C-alpha cells in the first residue's frame, strides 16, 4: 500500500520549469530515496508535498485522499537549510517546536529528554543554541523533526556535516523509525547512503522523473552482464576454454600460488554453461555478478548513457 502518491505534478517559476509531469508512488513503511543533481526539482517537489507551495497542475495523494492542511501534522520535515534561533536555550526551543506539532508541554518534555539522552546531548538542555557545534545543532533539529512520531518523514541531506560515527547513528535511527512503521523520504547526493538504507528511489533530472524502482532491482537491471571469476589454474587454458562463450575483459596478472581474478562479459546470459566451462578447466573459487553502484547509475542516468 502506498502512503504518498504524486500524480502528474508540474510547477513553473517565470521562465523556469521546476517540475514537468512528475509522478511517483511511495510505499508505506519504506525509505524512499529522492535523487537528482542540483537544480533538478527535488526541493520543489518536497515543498509541494509539505504544502509550502502548490503545484500548477497535478495532485498529491496522502493516505488515500488529496493532501490537506491537517495532514501536515502527520509529516516531519528536516530541510537542508538548517534553522534554529541562536539566542534561545536548546531545551526551550525544542519544546517550542514540539508544541507547534500538537504535543502538550508535559508529553514533549518527556519525549525530548529521552531523545537527548539517546543522542548524548542532555547536558546541553539549558545551553544557548549558539553554543552548539554544527553536529549538535543538527541532532536537535533531527529530534524535533521526529518527536511527534509523524507517519511521513522527509529528510533533505540529513548527514551533511556529520562525522562517520554520528552519520551512522542517524542512519540507524532512520531505519529504526522505518521499522516502527514510519515512511521516509530521503533526499541526498550520497549514493553510498542510498545503497545502505533506501528501499526504493526516484531520480529526477531536468524536471523529469527519469528512473524509479527498488534499489536492488535497478542495480541488477543495469548490471551489463559483467562477472568476476576467482580461480586457481592455467589462465591460458581458461581463456581458450571460454573463447566463443564470453568476452574476457581483464585479469589480475601473474600471482603464483594465489587465486587469480578474471573479469568477463556474458552477452547471451548463458551463465550456467560458462560456470561449467570454468569449473572443468580450473579450480573455481567464486563466480560473482558485478552489480553497479548507485553512484555509477546516477552518473550514467544524468549523462543520458544509461540503457
List the helices and strands and how they pair.
Blueprint: E1 2-13, E2 16-27, E3 31-35, H1 42-49, E4 57-62, E5 65-66, E6 75-78, H2 90-100, H3 105-118, H4 134-146, E7 152-156, H5 164-179, E8 183-187, H6 191-197, E9 200-205, E10 208-214, H7 215-221, E11 226-232, H8 235-242, E12 247-251, E13 260-265, H9 271-281, E14 283-289, H10 294-303
Parallel strand pairs: 3-8, 3-9, 6-7, 7-8
Antiparallel strand pairs: 1-2, 1-4, 4-5, 9-10, 11-13, 11-14, 12-13
Helix pairs in contact: 2-3, 2-4, 8-9
List keywords for this structure.
307 residues, alpha/beta, Rossmann fold, Alpha-Beta Plaits, 6-stranded mixed sheet, 10 helices
Q: What do you see in this structure?
A:
- The protein has 307 residues and is an alpha/beta fold.
- The protein has two domains: 2-213, P-loop containing nucleotide triphosphate hydrolases (Rossmann fold, 3-Layer(aba) Sandwich); 224-290, Alpha-Beta Plaits (2-Layer Sandwich), CATH 3.30.70.
- It is 34% helix and 29% strand.
- It has ten helices and 14 strands.
- The protein has helices at residues 42-49, 90-100, 105-118, 134-146, 164-179, 191-197, 215-221, 235-242, 271-281, 294-303, and strands at residues 2-13, 16-27, 31-35, 57-62, 65-66, 75-78, 152-156, 183-187, 200-205, 208-214, 226-232, 247-251, 260-265, 283-289.
- The strands form three sheets. A six-stranded mixed β-sheet has the order 6-7-8-3-9-10, with helices on both faces.
- Strand 9 and strand 10 form a beta hairpin.
- Helix 2 packs across helix 3, helix 2 (90-100) runs parallel beside helix 4 and helix 8 (235-242) packs antiparallel against helix 9.
- It starts with a strand and ends with a helix.
- The mean pLDDT is 90.
